[in-house]
Design goal:
Elements (H helix, E strand, L loop, with lengths): L5 H24 L3 H11 L13 H30 L4
Length: about 90
Amino acid sequence: MKELNKNNIGLSLGIIFVAIHVLWFIILVAGFGQHFLSWIIETHFIKINIEIIEFNLFLGIMTLIRAFVVGYITGWLFAFIYNKLQGVKK
């Protein structure tokens, strides 16, 4: 079995996490954030009052950085564990 490249998997998942957050930012800037979030929460049979605040570029950039780091770490760990479970040798 071929070894998964931990760096490539980490980068891929990091990019996916960033793309999801960019999509959320587009929804926010377009003015649909409150409606979208209310819909998502209600589809999980949850009723809570959440208020969407005004978009802040600095917080947005920090969120993208955090999303990438979390995605990268998650992807790297996934590949590491997968390789160990498959008994892949370098």
